[in-house]
Write a structure and sequence with these properties.
mainly alpha; 55% helix
């Protein structure tokens, strides 16, 4: 199962959320493509440091 749904107020009431269930036996290509996408996204990610987070404080501290 892969999806964006969550138990926040937005996830339950306001946002459009979706979940898909893929059976590896029936959807081998799709499962492999999704796995490759997540590996690619993970490889491109960066560690969130205090220095990188500081510019966003002006939006959250008001």
């Amino acid at each position: 199962m892969l999806g964006s749904s969550n138990l926040t107020d937005g996830g339950l009431r306001a946002n459009r959320e979706a979940v898909v269930r893929l059976d590896r036996d029936d959807n081998t290509d799709a499962v492999d493509d999704i796995r490759a996408l997540f590996v690619e996204l993970g490889d491109a990610g960066q560690v969130l440091t205090r220095k990188k987070l500081m510019p966003s404080r002006k939006f959250t501290m008001n």
